[in-house]
Design goal:
The complex is a heterotrimer of chains A (374), B (382) and C (261).
Chain A: H1 7-16, H2 22-62, H3 70-78, H4 85-120, H5 132-146, H6 158-179, H7 185-208, H8 212-223, H9 231-250, H10 252-258, H11 262-267, H12 272-294, H13 300-312, H14 316-340, H15 349-366
Helix pairs in contact in A: 2-4, 2-14, 4-9, 4-12, 4-13, 4-14, 5-6, 5-7, 5-8, 5-12, 6-7, 6-12, 9-12, 13-14, 13-15
Chain B: H1 7-30, E1 32-35, E2 41-44, E3 51-53, H2 59-65, E4 74-77, H3 80-84, H4 86-95, H5 97-102, E5 104-105, H6 116-121, E6 126-130, H7 134-139, H8 142-148, E7 153-156, H9 162-176, H10 180-201, E8 211-215, E9 227-229, H11 234-240, E10 244-245, H12 246-250, E11 255-257, H13 260-266, E12 270-275, H14 296-307, H15 316-319, E13 323-327, H16 336-347, H17 357-368, E14 378-380
Parallel strand pairs in B: 3-4, 3-6, 4-5, 6-7, 8-10, 8-12, 12-13
Antiparallel strand pairs in B: 1-2, 9-11, 13-14
Helix pairs in contact in B: 9-10, 10-16, 16-17
Chain C: E1 9-18, E2 21-32, E3 37-41, H1 48-56, E4 65-68, E5 71-72, H2 78-84, E6 85-88, H3 100-109, H4 118-131, H5 146-159, E7 164-168, H6 176-193, E8 196-201, H7 204-210, E9 213-218, E10 221-226, H8 228-233, H9 235-241, E11 244-249, E12 255-260
Parallel strand pairs in C: 3-8, 3-9, 6-7, 7-8
Antiparallel strand pairs in C: 1-2, 1-4, 4-5, 9-10, 11-12
Classes of the chains: A mainly alpha (374), B alpha/beta (382), C alpha/beta (261).
Chain lengths: 374, 382, 261
């Protein structure tokens, strides 16, 4: 009986065939060490990116209209009772939640985009293009203009609750479409885009009757803003990430297999429809929470995974964490930029991510010639 | 044959001349050519009597002119007065129940288009629009189409640049409503009350002007801060009242959102906010409900709640009791001189110790309004 | 050691339909022995792929069963079943930012465990080298030619350890040399692992040369099975393909098949 891949046997076999290939052995070990080298490179890149992210967060906390020196900031963080109330409010209530919120949201959108692209086999999929962000904007506008609550008794969480509920309902609808016979991932993208246009139209309708004050709220919501970050929201984001990401990571090989085609994945034992459903649920949760807290921020879920794909490839063990990191980097950079343009004035972050994202998007379309996608 | 002055001929000539002279004033008063606030020359073929107001809140301007029967020549409006200043609307309703009931509703002012059909259906002979709608009206061809249908459009402004445009707007409205005398009287009142402030302020040096931050619609929606004015509208009111408007130094536009951190860093001497009765439209609002039906006790509590917000309570303005709220709708009416007077009192209490905005407000109602003053239009921290 | 006699694969009364279309009509095949390679031959749309999928459990049959070593495979969970039955689908191209090494490694791991250890990597390297595509290890799978991609697909199948291997047309895109190589590898692997191999082929010569056993399927029914010379000389095959078939002995004593339209 053949011994299955036992290292000892392999060494034996290699020695037995010594005359054929010290050559053979050379090649095998070369292949293995090449792969190990590449894996190592990936890990180092990941670590380096985490390092850069930490620096960005620090810069974010350092940026703002109040000019506080580095040592002052450190002092306020390490020894809050010592600082003046203004400094405490600025660092602890304003800058820190915003900086941490930025990386959490970036990570959530990056992961959501990465997995949407994986299960739908389309590099243009992300919460924005599938209409989830528009649905959330519409839910928020419903709350702002008509005070209609989708979740009964939402109270002060009216806007956020509505946004979340609309995003989840839209995901459900998208999922419902996949249950119809004959629906492929391509069709799902088209359905998502149809949702996007539908909700944008409904949004325009709501804006039609809104007051001046309501309008400015809706617009700021549509373009995204980190200004309403709070420790509670940061904690919520961390919890959601802690629930969803480990689940996705545990499915790494199955998700990688999906990219080889449904047939291949199925033949390896992947329950394709269940995987799609559960991943869609996780992605919806990530996207809905993210969008309901900061508004419709475009392109992060698209560009983050794209960067990850170029840098570490699509082995999900690296692709997923790197998408999260890339998303976090983008959001952190955007947060810094939005504060730096004119100190004091708040610019909607969605505006900045769009400005960065559109050239990226175009280069993505142009590079389709490289045929990364079926 | 000579033109004989027969008795008959003379009688006829007399009658003809008399008729000619009798109809002359009427003929001259028939058509009206005015230059509106947008600089457009508009000819009204005759005194309009079926007017549509582009914003219900234009009644603030119409009421002083046609005090006894402000709705006489008005057929309809957009419903912003009802939505955003229900207190004032109720005053009008109580005073003129049938008139307010017959007002045709043309929708919300922020909804894009004016329905041309609806205008024609109501046989309107004039449409008065706010200057902010100029671009949209031109772009959508509204003006052209109404022109073709024989309905002129004129623009007024009490919002974009109220301190510059109120006088010409009131003059124009005076001519439109055939109330030039009343318009002149109102303008006299306006100018006199404005000069009570500006005469004193114009000799002040820059360093005598404290830093003032105006939070637009403070507390309108929880957790968001803050929209403020540039050197326009309330920002300009602050400047005219002898303050340094925070927004003017930061950006050049009409309004902008600034971060709470910026406010904390600036630590203004005086913190202002606007408020109005938005609670009927948005029950969960934390704003100060100023207006004709305001409840001072409620507003005092609400102001304290706003002062207790994170980051606000440590501001020196709050600690010194220099936090105030003032009626939001002054931003879009010809009565902003009252706001400027009250702002002046807050900003320069000694220089304006003798100024009495409450009295001014009462006088405004006595002379020019179809109902009495009442309610609360500003409030301060104790 | 397993009882070799018991590890046979057989199927009976399989019926599969999609909507109203019947693909397999109450059909089955007799025991296939371990260590042997069986070629599944038949015209297009005869139901070869469907039969494979049914054996693997990816498609459910109405009634009937697939038996492996005396056990009804439908009693196993999908996961276990697919560990015992390795199915290589017909279509093999994919576009992803993955290298050849990555995808074969993925098959090697077969979704179990997260970490990759030395043994896994060495097994994959061995596999690639034996297939002669070691030089493609770092190549992106989207950049491979059709033939190269197919060879990677075969590697993915062979890197797994199973009792039954089902190859759906593993040589369709390959050149002459590689066709022979791949068939040789498959047959050797089946012998070494004492596994049951089934290969769906269009090329009757390849089938005749490498298969120990032939199964003929036509219009959703298995019509004939047996040693190659028996099946190829039986008139059923000519009927099924709608050609005239002659066999002869080749220069190296192998069985050659000639078809005439």
């Amino acid at each position: 009986m053949v011994v299955h891949g036992h290292p000892a046997f392999l060494i034996l076999k290699v020695e037995f065939m010594a005359d054929v290939g010290s050559d053979h052995r050379q090649t095998v070990t070369t292949l293995v060490s090449n792969y190990q080298y590449r894996s190592l490179k990936r890990w180092l890149l990941l670590l380096a990116t985490i390092g850069i992210l930490c620096i960005m967060v620090v810069i974010d906390i350092m940026t703002g209209p109040a000019s506080l020196s580095f040592s002052e900031v450190i002092r306020v963080i390490l020894n809050p009772p010592d600082a003046t109330p203004q400094q405490r409010v600025i660092i602890w209530d304003l800058r820190m939640p915003i900086a941490l919120m930025a990386i959490c949201i970036g990570a959530m959108l990056g992961v959501a985009g990465a997995e949407m692209q994986t299960i739908l086999n389309n590099s243009l999929a992300d919460p924005f293009t599938l209409g989830l962000s528009s649905a959330a904007s519409f839910g928020a506008a419903l709350a702002i203009t008509l005070q209609w609550s989708i979740i009964p008794g939402a109270g002060i969480f009216l806007v956020t609750g509505n946004a979340f509920a609309m995003a989840m309902l839209t995901s459900l609808a998208l999922y419902g479409f996949t249950r119809l016979r004959g629906v492929t991932p391509e069709t799902m993208i088209l359905v998502g885009i149809a949702m996007l246009f539908t909700f944008n139209a409904l949004l325009a309708l709501l804006q039609y009757g809104a007051s001046e004050l309501e309008l400015s709220q809706i617009i700021f919501w549509q373009l995204g803003s980190l200004a309403r970050a709070s420790w509670g929201k940061v904690l919520t984001c961390v919890i959601v990430l802690a629930i969803v990401v480990p689940y996705f990571m545990s499915r790494s090989w199955s998700l990688t297999a999906l990219r080889m085609g449904e047939d291949k994945a199925a033949s390896l034992g992947v329950n394709v429809s269940f995987l799609r459903l559960s991943v869609l649920a996780g992605v919806s949760l990530l996207a809905a929470v993210a969008v309901s807290f900061v508004g419709a921020v475009a392109f992060v879920g698209l560009v983050g995974p794209h960067i990850a794909r170029i840098v570490v490839g699509e082995d999900q063990r690296g692709f997923l964490p790197f998408s999260a990191l890339a998303g976090a980097l983008i959001m952190s950079g955007t947060s810094i930029a939005s504060k730096a343009i004119t100190p004091g004035v708040i610019y909607p972050i969605g505006m900045i991510t769009s400005l960065i994202g559109i050239p990226f998007f175009i280069s993505l379309i142009l590079s389709q010639r490289q045929r990364h996608w079926q | 044959m000579t033109y004989a002055l027969t008795r008959r001929g003379f009688a006829l000539a007399t009658v003809a001349t008399a008729t000619f002279f009798a109809s002359a004033p009427h003929a001259f008063a028939q058509s009206l050519t005015i230059t509106d606030i947008a600089g457009r020359e508009v000819t009204l073929p005759e005194q309009p009597s079926r007017i549509i107001l582009g914003e219900g809140r234009m009644m603030y301007a119409v009421a002083p002119l046609a005090t006894d029967d402000p709705f006489e020549k008005i057929v309809g409006w957009k419903d912003d007065l009802i939505l955003y200043d229900p207190d004032a609307f109720r005053r009008f309703e109580t005073a003129f129940p049938e008139d307010t009931a017959r007002m045709v509703n043309f929708g919300s002012p922020y909804a894009g288009d004016f329905s041309i059909e609806a205008v024609l259906e109501n046989n309107a002979d004039l449409l008065i629009l706010d200057l902010g709608n100029l671009f949209k009206a031109e772009e959508t061809g509204l003006i052209e189409k109404l022109d073709d249908a024989g309905v002129p459009v004129v623009f007024v402004d009490f919002r974009q640049d109220p301190t510059a445009n109120t006088v010409p707007s009131m003059l124009m409205l005076g001519r439109i409503f055939g109330e030039q005398d009343r318009a002149a009287k109102f303008i006299d009142f306006y100018v006199a009350e404005m000069r009570k402030v500006t005469n004193v302020v114009q000799s002040m040096a820059a360093d005598e002007k404290p830093l003032v931050f105006m939070e637009n619609a403070a507390g309108y929606s929880a957790g968001s801060c803050c929209t403020t004015y540039g050197s326009f509208n309330y920002g300009r009111f602050i400047e005219l009242a002898g303050g340094q408007n925070y927004g003017s130094g930061l950006f050049s536009g009409f309004k902008s959102e600034v971060s709470l951190e910026a406010l904390i860093t600036a630590d203004p001497d005086i913190l202002l906010g606007t408020g109005a009765n938005w609670a009927e439209a948005r029950p969960e609002t934390m704003a100060i409900l100023l207006g004709y039906d305001a409840d001072p006790a409620v507003n005092a509590e609400r102001l304290q709640t706003l002062a207790d917000r994170d980051g606000f309570r440590d501001l020196k303005a709050v600690k010194n009791g220099q936090m105030h709220s003032i009626y939001h709708q002054f931003y879009n009416s010809p009565y902003h001189f009252i706001a400027i007077q009250q702002l002046a009192k807050w900003i320069h209490p000694e220089e304006f110790a003798d100024l009495d905005p409450d009295a001014t407000f009462a006088q405004l109602h006595d002379k020019f309004m179809p109902f009495e003053a009442g309610g609360q239009f500003w409030v301060s921290l104790p | 050691m397993k009882n070799e006699l018991a590890m046979v694969l057989s199927a009976s009364e399989l019926s599969v339909q999609f909507g109203s279309r019947k693909i397999l009509h109450n059909t089955g095949f007799d025991a296939l022995q371990p260590g042997q390679l069986t070629a599944l031959i038949g015209p297009n749309a005869a139901g070869k792929s469907t039969l494979f999928r049914t054996i693997a459990g990816l498609i459910k049959s109405r009634g009937g069963k697939v038996m492996l070593g005396g056990q009804d495979l439908s009693t196993l969970s999908t996961k276990i079943r697919l560990q015992r039955v390795c199915f290589m689908p017909q279509f093999f191209t994919a576009n992803a930012a993955l290298s050849v090494f990555d995808v074969v490694l993925m098959a090697q791991k077969q979704l179990s465990g997260w970490r990759v250890n030395e043994a896994d990597m060495t097994a994959v390297a061995q596999n690639l080298h034996a297939a002669g595509i070691g030089h493609l290890a770092d190549a992106n799978i989207g950049e491979l030619s059709g033939g190269q991609a197919q060879m990677v697909s075969v590697c993915q199948a062979l890197t797994r350890r199973a009792d039954v291997y089902l190859f759906d047309e593993p040589t369709s895109a390959l050149d002459l040399r590689h066709q022979l190589d791949v068939m040789d590898r498959i047959r050797t692997a089946m012998r070494e692992r004492n596994a049951i191999g089934m290969v769906a082929l269009h090329d009757l010569n390849l089938a005749a040369r490498y298969a120990d056993h032939l199964v003929l399927i036509g219009a959703g029914k298995i019509l004939n099975q047996g040693p190659p010379d028996h099946v190829l000389s039986d008139p059923l095959i000519a009927q099924t393909y709608d050609v005239a078939i002659e066999t002869s002995s080749g220069p190296r004593k192998e069985l050659n098949v000639h078809a005439y339209a």
